[in-house]
Specification:
This protein has helices at residues 2-14, 20-48, 74-87, 108-117, 127-137, 204-217, 259-268, 287-299, 309-315, 337-349; strands spanning 61-66, 92-96, 121-123, 143-147, 159-165, 193-197, 222-225, 227-235, 238-241, 249-254, 272-278, 304-308, 326-334. Strand 12, helix 9 (309-315) and strand 13 form a beta-alpha-beta unit. The chain is built from 10 helices and 13 strands. Helix 3 (74-87) packs parallel to helix 4 (108-117) and helix 4 packs across helix 9. The strands form 2 sheets. The protein has a 7-stranded parallel sheet with strand order 3-2-4-1-5-6-7, with helices on both faces. A 6-stranded mixed sheet has the order 9-8-13-12-10-11, with helices on both faces. Among the domains are: 2-48; 229-332, Rossmann fold (3-Layer(aba) Sandwich), CATH 3.40.50. It has 372 residues and is an alpha/beta fold.
């Protein structure tokens, strides 16, 4: 399975694997690392000097990205921001690079965001063209969220938000392919806001250390903490508290950047893990995959299968007649009220007042424990 290969790669990058082959591979990867790092630095230098051109979109752009590969929680963050802007009366839209689902030109994240937020969403590697198409259809849009946009500098952004996963913050200290950094840490200097995601999963002292490391590479950014909480699960048409999983025998599966976090969330909820399947990130599920999962659930006497919302988008068409229930877990972002207010103030400072609708929607603002 591809996930076993990915796990092996992570063990080699992190130094956890200590066998002779792992040592040799680390040596090879370390030799290639300067080439990749130099390429990343040259690319950013070309944009910084104007030799490469960034396109200004006709609406303010907020980039949500990261400096490492793997899952840092971008989708929950985009959901949080979109809901916050909707509550404040704005009309956000989202542009994504787009990972296709099978032969479809759609994207798993695009489908999830469109379903959960009811905002305009476009998935297209050419986000300049995507923006033109989106605004032609939705001229009311007054702010654009650029998902996974930190290294995508073809679109000029008005606010750069970088997410750092507190459980794996700096890509094992190396740039690809030796580590998981997309570029050297000095690239953090381009960030306006740095959000430490999953900060509730590490000790306070570790959070302090990560913040100090960020500050050493960027003295001007607003640094805030965010928690990820698995709040509920959806089973059929019913949404229930995640505590429903307590003492339930389950088979979990996912195809996301950081499957260990999903798995640990389920275990913390009290679920009894009968089996776990980690597919490659953005995995395109087939009938064979679903049949394998259902067979594993039956073999292990599991009461249900549990996956992520992003995976469910691709599994749902194949699960209509599943003999065992398939639930999807909902993960929400939590940001303390004071930090949420600072973040939203920065965001609204880049949205021209004339772009705001006259009538504001009623409702509270997202903060601690709300996820909305």
């Amino acid at each position: 399975m591809g996930s076993e290969r990915e796990q092996r790669i992570r063990q080699i990058m992190s130094g956890e694997a200590r066998d002779v082959r792992a040592h040799l591979l680390r040596g090879v990867l370390r030799a290639v690392e300067p080439v990749y790092s130099l390429g990343a630095r040259i690319n950013h230098a070309l944009y910084n000097t104007g030799l490469k051109h960034s396109h200004r979109l006709p609406r303010p752009v907020i980039s949500i990205g990261n400096i490492t590969t793997g899952g840092t929680g971008k989708t929950p963050m985009v959901q949080w921001l979109a809901r916050a802007l909707l509550i404040r009366g704005h009309h956000p839209a989202c542009l994504l690079r787009g990972y296709t689902v099978g032969s479809s030109s759609s994207s798993d994240e695009a489908a999830l965001l469109a379903q959960s937020l009811k905002i305009p969403v476009r998935a297209n590697p050419n986000r300049v063209v995507a923006a033109q198409q989106l605004l032609a259809e939705h001229p009311e849009v007054d702010v654009i969220l650029l998902d996974d946009g930190f290294q995508h500098r073809r679109v000029k952004r008005d606010l750069n938000i970088v997410l750092i996963d507190a459980t794996e913050p700096f890509g094992y200290g190396h740039v690809l392919p030796r580590g998981m950094l997309r570029e050297p840490l000095r690239g953090l200097d381009r960030a306006d806001v740095v959000i430490l995601t999953r900060s509730n999963l590490v000790e306070h002292q570790r959070v302090v250390e990560i913040m100090a490391r960020v500050h050493s590479n960027n003295a001007h950014a607003l640094i805030i903490r965010a928690n990820h909480r698995m709040k509920s699960i959806i089973l059929g048409s019913e949404c229930v508290e995640v505590e429903t999983l307590r003492d339930k025998r389950i088979v979990s599966f996912c195809g996301i950047g950081n499957p260990a976090v999903f798995r640990n969330d389920l275990l913390r909820a009290g679920a009894i893990e009968a089996a776990h399947f980690a597919f490659p990130d953005h995995h395109d599920y087939s009938r064979v995959d679903v049949d394998l999962l259902l067979a594993a659930a039956k073999e292990n006497a599991a009461e249900m299968l549990v996956t992520t919302e992003k995976d469910w988008v691709k599994v749902e068409p194949l699960a209509a007649e599943a003999s065992i229930p398939i639930a999807r877990a909902q993960v929400e972002m939590e940001i303390a009220e004071a930090d949420a207010q600072q973040l939203l103030a920065r965001i609204e400072s880049i949205i021209p007042p004339s772009a705001s609708p006259r009538e504001r929607l009623q409702g509270g603002e997202p903060g601690a424990g709300s996820g909305r």
